[in-house]
């Protein structure tokens, strides 16, 4: 029967290949006027409001959502205007550029668009039994006895047979289990031991680099063997014998572009699918088709999705046939306490809650309060120094504000920050034990895939800082989390014993939270993802199987922007330049900047790569008494940052420089890693320690390059402020002196009262003569 189906499928595919392909929707877009202009910040704010959940408006009024006034947070976003490089004749340059273009055979399967389309109409009945696969058991025999005992505490251990069986006999499986049930670390080990990694690897995705590294290390620790490795943006420790590969979502998306059918994998596990990042949504759409193609080729790829809080049925329109596994294991109880009302200062409220925990006696009945009157500690809780505290805050600034207040108690506690800007060694400290009570102050990085076993108390501020972006504009809003995030935060306690979660908001406020987080793909520019999909041969973006499709306006704006860069032609097809741009995993604007200047300015190319790395990594220098000398006489913020980076490379006393400028060594090293990564892609070899000098002539040429990089974002000086697209903007205190000259800028930050342009470069008046 399977053979007949294969014959029928081949006949159907052949018939379709003979038909003349028409992309009706894209043709309509091509006929539309491409001269739409930017209506300014007011239009952007209207679009942003339309994207928010329906109940958000009343929710904002009742719960006093605060719009961030911090105008110094960085990110870069692209403008939608066309013809942005009119001041510079790039067309003649691009035709002569000889760059390291991705070979056609690496652009993925040459029939990607076609097979994606055909896979929609092929509904297999998952007759995997007919494939006669062989699974050779690979039991891990070197596990330590204490690890065996620890694993037995997970209820998921008693579901191994069911989980393996369902994944074996179904192409797509959805595993839903409570936070802390062990699915992240155990499912991949189940599959390895049951023969799924005999000839191929098992790949497990994580939303963050930190969790990818820690989970890979945890799997190796439990196995007592080196079976797992990780691959993140700048690091790759995968070895020839690696069987379980842990990667970030972006890494897997890039691998699909190079090998569409993911031939090296037998199972793809997508973890934390409820976070709904843009990469996750695109991966689900692609993999929903890839598994069918691999099945038709009698080389099946299993897809496993895992989450603790999302509704699996929301994925049903894309993943039409999947088997649901509900893990309902027992957990230690976690008592949840709400505030009677929302505090005006949640940092102060969290501080008082921590003090109350420290002052409380070791045991309380459930009806008693601590002496401070701030907390309830149920009788079953052993409130000793071994009972660690995890506090969820909104940002690094909040973390260090609270830490500075808690440092007065350094003899009783150890306070550990946890955020994405820390080095791996500093992040790993949260897993250590200490002879005093451990207080972990974290951003939402600790919400998922981070298991700190000794956490007993969780203090949840109920807030998060969200980035809302549209083209070259970014807004930061501190707003309430969703119910699923609150559940995830609560689940950080109760791992090894009963726990407590103190929510710094009222029960009535909680009932007004949205159920799930808003998909990222609807909240940010789509041009980078669109270009990568075009590079894979997917012409009809409107036909792509999105869980939540970006709006028609968002797709049209992205198409126009990419056309203005020369990455797409007037028919919406990717150009030779566009393919070259795709070799760099950065924003299309920056990728074009590197592609064009690779041969035009070879001597400056490495410095331009560092500037792009600075832009991509969110580098920020505060202007104060210690740093004002760096800004003197500079014509661009980015030249200031570049000079500081070069000084960091050459100075012997790096600790003194770091202390002076207030920028961590990790940020400098992140820029170095990214610059090295981009230079490796361009096949340029350079020693940053010896080959990196910056002359006055270099500065002038770099500034000239920056004029044309941001030529579409020219702000005109009117004396006290700047005008761009009929809107008023200010220069940040942390920027160079402009001497009332016109400027170009990287992006705009909208604060509560004023909007600021960031990463500015002064434009010489001679350019306007």
Automatic annotation (TrEMBL):
Gene3D superfamilies, alphabetized: 1.20.120.1080, P-loop containing nucleotide triphosphate hydrolases
Stored Pfam families: DEAD, Helicase_C, WHD_HA2
Gene Ontology, cellular component aspect: nucleolus; ribonucleoprotein complex
EC number from the UniProt entry: 3.6.4.13
Key words, A-Z: ATP-binding, Helicase, Hydrolase, Nucleotide-binding
Biological process per Gene Ontology, one example term: maturation of SSU-rRNA from tricistronic rRNA transcript (SSU-rRNA, 5.8S rRNA, LSU-rRNA)
Chain ranges of the Helicase C-terminal domain: 380-537
InterPro entries: DEAD/DEAH_box_helicase_dom, DNA/RNA_helicase_DEAH_CS, HA2_WH, Helicase-assoc_dom, Helicase_ATP-bd, Helicase_C-like, P-loop_NTPase
SMART domains attached to this UniProt entry: DEXDc (SM00487), HA2 (SM00847), HELICc (SM00490)
Family: Belongs to the DEAD box helicase family. DEAH subfamily.
Full protein name: RNA helicase
Protein species of origin: Vittaforma corneae (strain ATCC 50505)
Taxonomic lineage: Eukaryota, Fungi, Fungi incertae sedis, Microsporidia, Nosematidae
């Amino acid at each position: 029967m399977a053979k007949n189906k294969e014959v029928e499928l081949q006949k159907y595919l052949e018939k379709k290949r003979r038909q003349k392909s028409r992309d009706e929707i894209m043709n309509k877009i091509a006929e539309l006027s491409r001269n739409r202009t930017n209506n300014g910040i007011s239009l952007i704010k209207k679009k942003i409001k339309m994207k928010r959940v329906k109940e958000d408006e009343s929710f904002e009024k009742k719960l006093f959502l605060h719009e961030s006034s911090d105008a110094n947070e960085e990110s870069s976003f692209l403008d939608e205007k066309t013809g942005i490089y009119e001041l510079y004749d790039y067309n003649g340059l691009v035709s002569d550029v000889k760059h390291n273009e991705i070979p056609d055979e690496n652009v993925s399967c040459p029939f990607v668009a076609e097979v994606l389309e055909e896979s929609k109409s092929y509904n297999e009945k998952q007759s995997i039994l007919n494939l006669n696969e062989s699974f050779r058991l690979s039991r891990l025999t070197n596990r330590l006895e204490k690890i065996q005992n620890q694993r037995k505490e997970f209820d998921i251990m008693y579901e191994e047979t069911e989980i393996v069986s369902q994944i074996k006999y179904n192409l797509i499986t959805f595993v839903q289990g409570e936070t802390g049930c062990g699915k992240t670390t155990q499912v991949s080990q189940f599959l390895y031991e049951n023969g799924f990694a005999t000839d191929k690897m098992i790949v497990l995705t994580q939303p963050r680099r930190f969790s990818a590294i820690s989970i890979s290390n945890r799997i190796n620790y439990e196995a007592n063997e080196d079976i797992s490795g990780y691959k993140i943006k700048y690091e790759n420790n995968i070895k020839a014998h690696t069987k379980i590969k842990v990667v970030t979502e972006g890494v897997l998306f890039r691998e699909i572009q190079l090998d569409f059918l993911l031939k090296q994998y037998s199972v793809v596990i997508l973890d934390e699918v409820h976070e709904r990042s843009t990469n996750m949504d695109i991966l689900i759409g692609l993999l929903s088709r890839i598994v069918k193609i691999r099945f038709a080729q009698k080389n099946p790829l299993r897809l496993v999705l895992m989450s603790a809080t999302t509704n699996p049925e929301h994925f049903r329109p894309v993943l039409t046939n999947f088997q649901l596994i509900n893990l309902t294991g027992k957990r230690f109880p976690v008592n949840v306490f709400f505030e009677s009302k929302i505090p005006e200062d949640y940092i102060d409220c969290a501080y008082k809650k921590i003090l109350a925990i420290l002052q409380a006696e070791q045991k309380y009945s459930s009806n008693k309060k601590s002496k401070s009157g701030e907390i309830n500690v149920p009788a079953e809780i052993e409130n000793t120094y071994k009972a660690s505290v995890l506090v969820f805050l909104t940002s690094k600034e909040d973390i260090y504000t609270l830490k500075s207040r808690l440092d007065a108690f350094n003899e009783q506690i150890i306070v550990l920050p946890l955020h994405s800007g820390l080095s791996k060694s500093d992040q790993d400290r949260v897993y250590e034990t200490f002879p005093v009570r451990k207080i972990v102050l974290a951003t939402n990085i600790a919400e998922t895939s981070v298991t700190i076993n000794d956490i007993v108390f969780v203090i949840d501020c109920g807030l998060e800082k969200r980035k809302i972006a549209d083209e070259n504009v970014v807004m930061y809003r501190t707003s309430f989390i969703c119910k699923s995030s609150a559940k995830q935060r609560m689940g950080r306690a109760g791992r090894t014993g009963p726990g407590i979660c103190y929510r710094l908001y009222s029960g009535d406020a909680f009932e007004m939270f949205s159920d799930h987080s808003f998909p990222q793909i609807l909240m940010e520019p789509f041009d980078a993802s669109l270009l990568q999909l075009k590079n894979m041969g997917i012409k009809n973006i409107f036909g792509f199987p999105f869980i939540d499709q970006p709006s028609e306006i968002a797709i049209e704006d992205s198409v126009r922007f990419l056309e203005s860069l020369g990455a797409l032609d007037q028919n919406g097809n990717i150009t030779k330049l566009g393919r070259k741009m795709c070799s760099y995993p950065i924003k299309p604007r920056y990728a074009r900047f590197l592609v064009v200047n690779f041969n035009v300015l070879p001597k400056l190319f490495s410095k331009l790569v560092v500037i792009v790395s600075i832009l991509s990594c969110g580098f920020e220098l505060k202007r104060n008494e210690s740093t004002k000398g760096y800004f003197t006489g500079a014509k661009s913020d980015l030249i200031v940052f570049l000079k500081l980076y070069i000084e960091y490379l050459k100075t012997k006393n790096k600790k003194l420089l770091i202390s002076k400028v207030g920028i961590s060594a990790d940020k400098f090293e992140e820029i170095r890693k990214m610059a090295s990564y981009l230079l490796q892609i361009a096949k340029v070899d350079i020693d940053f320690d010896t080959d990196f000098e910056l002359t006055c002539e270099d500065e002038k040429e770099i500034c000239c390059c920056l004029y044309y990089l941001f030529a579409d974002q020219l702000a005109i000086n009117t004396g006290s402020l700047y005008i761009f697209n009929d809107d008023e903007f200010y220069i940040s205190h942390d920027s160079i002196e402009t001497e009332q000259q016109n400027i170009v800028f990287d992006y705009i930050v909208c604060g509560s009262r004023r909007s600021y342009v960031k990463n500015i470069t002064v434009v010489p008046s001679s350019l306007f003569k």
